[in-house]
Write a structure and sequence with these properties.
Chain lengths: 257, 369
């Protein structure tokens, strides 16, 4: 594993996420095979790989949207077991953005953002609203606060989703292909938001095929195939000098377009 | 129709108002009713039938009907004889409730309106306080209607007419929604015991007719209860009606839960909401909204099904109607009696239906695409 860090890296020596020998099956199907991964606090990781390689499954195991059957996952020094208390504690510290945003359509943008702080963190409504407006300003859509998600463009919805996660003040953010349901001009606005977030020193795990983004902000790029981590390296090395044949093939395919 | 299109330079086209619809009443008639020979014939035939039906109805109910008089002999105009309704009006409203105590059902009715309005409309001022009143209203209503503690006790056998229909209908509606929600959630639960219990309950209740349940509640239940324990016939009917409609309600709500995308559950989970929080704040508000038509449908069905209690010897509107029809003094006035009962039911059911439409429109937040 390469330890070299780029100039802008906010990476520290503290461990944020630790996966030791993680296996997962869907019925008979072995979807994650012996995953070992350490993520430092402040580290930005981009995960890529062909469709069906288990990228989503991997990051969804980190906040227990999927259950792993073997190995240990330790997030923020809390071990992820069947213990509901631990799961809740981890979910409070880990924010997640989905490919299809998963905003709550019956609540306004502001209510989407204040819901979890009010009900999970027991924050007074007024304070939660102030924090929500602060993050909506950061993702540059404070003027949409009163609208409903169905009235926003895809890019705006995804930025609301990012703001909504940030309102919980998470220490780790997970992104599962946040831009792959968006049109090109909207992709740029969402990536800009994510780059700004990276500059604040947030620990980020991001499944994406936006290679420009990976080069710019990632400390490490991980390539997965067939449920295994095939290769991981810092972005320059990863893109210019891929080690395995499968990585080379994958890169030549996505960079061809 | 050729309107010369005005030319604009590319990129300069201004926003124009939309074209006007074909204006005028005559144009409307021409287009909708007389656009072709066949259409014209259909229109004329329909008008002919409508005229005959409507004029007959108006004659019977109003112009040819008798509104004042003492006995059936005064009804000689050929239309309806509404005297029977006037004569028995109090029974239609209160059943055999003691005459000098009518103020109690009246007051209860007024309080019921006060209790229901804040539940139905969320834009009234001080809604929170009114909702508190709505929550304690059932107890006030029970005290007012049945008495005790300073009020003369009125046995439930004496309740009847619209009063009884409303008690059954409102209690059934109020009880079936929460029980239905719990059953629907239980049926989708991961816990096998909870799920099995809910499935068995729903399938059993849906598998038997309401009238059977009412008979069982009124005749068989006492056999299973320990000696000496005997509770009110009305209460037993109430429980039967509420359980019956909650099984239907559960299936309606389950349909709504099924329609919520998995992403909504995951969004709620990822934010750390507990199971009950995510149900209450995220899933149920959306699921119930989708199935408002089904819920109101069940309410209306339940409200009308309460008439079945007349078969187990309770005098709801139909029960009172049957007594009125059997009265020798008013022999042969069944149409008037049933028309009046139908009107009372229609008013309530139509109001529920309109409310549901209004609510659907109000809750529409632009996420239907
Ligand atoms: N709930 C499930 N049940 C059974 N198999 C599943 C389930 N979810 C995913 N899979 C399978 O697991 C494999 C990995 O899925 P995953 O969603 O993690 O892939 P991915 O790398 O995120 O792919 P993509 O780039 O298309 O999102 C796929 O082959 C998929 O068919
Ligand atoms: Mg995926």
């Amino acid at each position: 594993m390469s330890n070299a860090s780029t100039n802008t890296s906010k990476k520290t020596d503290e461990v944020a996420i630790q996966l030791n020998g993680v296996h997962k099956w869907y019925g008979q199907f072995h979807v994650l095979k012996n995953i070992n991964l350490n993520v430092q606090r402040g580290e930005r990781i981009v995960i890529c790989g062909p469709s069906g390689s288990g990228k989503s499954t991997l990051i969804r195991c980190i906040n227990r949207l999927e259950e792993h059957q073997q190995g240990d996952i330790i997030v923020d020094n809390i071990e992820l077991t069947g213990n509901l208390k631990n799961i809740d504690a981890i979910r409070r510290e880990v924010g997640m953005c989905f490919q299809h945003f998963n905003l709550f359509p019956h609540l306004s943008v502001l209510e989407n953002c204040t819901l979890a702080p009010i009900w999970v963190r027991k924050m007074p409504k007024k304070e939660a609203e102030e924090i929500a407006m602060h993050y909506l300003e950061r993702v540059k859509i404070p003027d949409q606060a009163a609208k409903f998600p169905g009235q926003l463009s895809g890019g705006q919805q995804q930025r609301v989703a990012i703001a909504r996660s940030l309102c919980m003040n998470p220490r780790i953010m997970l992104f599962d292909e946040p831009t792959s349901a968006l049109d090109p001009e909207m992709i740029a606005e969402v990536l800009d938001t994510m780059i700004e977030l990276a500059e604040t020193g947030m620990t980020m795990l991001c499944v994406t095929h936006e290679m420009g983004f990976a080069r710019k902000v990632a400390d490490r790029v991980i390539f997965m195939d067939g449920g295994e981590i095939i290769e991981q390296n810092e972005p320059e090395e990863f893109f210019n000098n891929p080690q395995s044949e499968r990585t080379q093939k994958f890169l030549s395919q996505i960079l061809a377009h | 129709m050729s309107v010369t299109e005005q030319q604009y330079a590319p990129g300069e086209h201004p926003d124009l108002p939309p074209p006007l619809g074909e204006a005028g009443l005559i144009a409307w008639f021409k287009k909708r009713l007389f656009s072709s020979v066949g259409n014209t014939i259909l229109t004329l035939v329909a008008v002919f039938f409508l005229y005959h039906v409507l004029s007959a109805i108006i004659f019977w109910t109003l112009t040819g009907a008798t509104f004042t008089g003492e006995t059936k002999a005064d009804c000689d105009l050929g239309g309806a004889c509404w005297l029977v309704i006037g004569d028995r009006f109090h029974q239609f409203m209160y059943g055999l409730y003691p005459t000098d105590q009518y103020w109690r059902p009246n007051l209860t009715f007024i309080l019921m309106v006060v209790a229901i309005v804040p539940v139905l409309f969320d834009n009234i001022p001080h809604r929170g306080k009114f909702l508190l009143f709505s929550a304690i209203f059932p107890f006030i209503a029970f005290y007012l209607l049945s008495g005790g503690w300073g009020l003369e006790t009125v046995d439930t056998d004496e309740w009847g007419g619209l009063l009884l229909t409303l008690v059954l209908g409102v209690t059934g509606i109020v009880a079936s929604l929460p029980i239905g929600i719990v059953l629907a959630l239980g049926r989708r639960s991961n816990m096998p015991i909870v799920r099995t219990l809910c499935v068995c309950f729903i399938e059993f209740i849906r598998g038997v007719p309401l009238i059977t349940i009412l008979f069982m509640a009124s005749n068989m239940l006492p056999l299973f209860l320990p000696e000496g324990v005997n509770f009110d016939k009305l209460l037993r009917a109430l429980i039967g009606v509420a359980l019956f409609s909650s099984a239907y309600m559960a299936e309606v709500i389950r349909g709504g839960l099924q329609a919520i995308p998995k992403g909504q559950y995951e969004g709620a989970d990822a934010m750390g909401l507990s199971y009950w929080q995510s149900m209450r704040l995220i899933i149920l508000p959306q699921a119930l909204r989708i199935v408002i038509p089904g819920i109101v449908n069940t309410f209306i069905g339940l409200y009308k099904d309460t008439t079945l209690v007349s078969i187990i010897g309770l005098f709801d509107l139909i029960g009172i109607g049957l007594v009125a029809v059997a009265d020798v003094k008013w022999r042969g006035l069944a149409p008037e009696t049933y028309a009046f009962i139908a009107l009372l039911f229609f008013i309530s059911c139509f109001a529920m239906s309109r409310y549901s439409l209004w609510l659907e429109n109000k809750l529409h937040t632009g996420h239907k695409r």
